[in-house]
Amino acid sequence: MSARIDLSGGWSNWKQMFLIGRTKPAIIDHYMSGTEWTEFCDDIDEALEPLNRASKYSAIAFLLTFVSTIISMSVYMITMFSKTFGTSLDDDFGPPRGQNLIFYVIGIIFVTVIISAAFNCNTGYKWQKSSEDIEEICAETSERQPRLSFHVRFERYYTFHGGDAKSHVNQYIEVLINQQGMHTELEPVAPYAPASSPYVVAAIPDDTVQQRLKELEEVKHLLTEIEYSDKRTEILTDL
After folding, report:
1. What keywords are annotated for this sequence in UniProt (predicted)?
2. Per-residue confidence band for 137, with pLDDT thresholds at 50, 70 and 90
């Protein structure tokens, strides 16, 4: 028997934090107390906290990159539009800025993209580190619970929208229940010994042999010595 404990949260919504489902499966209720379950959930949430912070910072960095790109491109387009219609912004920005505005725009976009990529890499590292910490917590909890075994599992599922397909990796904890030592009392059954031969041979009573020998003696005078010897041997062989 096994139970599944889901870890809520995801990459698509930075407002949704990674948390363990705190509803204790009924199947492990008899093996793990409420206090032990609460401590286990607290340890898992503590291991997920660095990942939650990293994913939030990564989402903010991506948002800033997007906004700075829009603003930079808007300023550049306004500048080009003004020059096209004879109105120059060189008086406001000065000749160097007016001429090199495109380099400022590219520089700002490049810096924000690098920062966003760095935060994404940090989030990936925190995700790996949190997974290792959760595995360690599961191993320690399994040692304290002789009837329960906790394991980190991963599953990949796909979503289809139009012609596009996206894959998602979901992480959860599987709890296996050790049923060793659980015995069911059965009524004793007499041991069965298989027969060495499929044929059943009935024992010949001794009185039947004695009677046959007596009858043979009565007709002995009618038989030759060879016939008498063969008949006697045949009767004695049946013993």
Report:
1. Membrane, Transmembrane, Transmembrane helix
2. very high
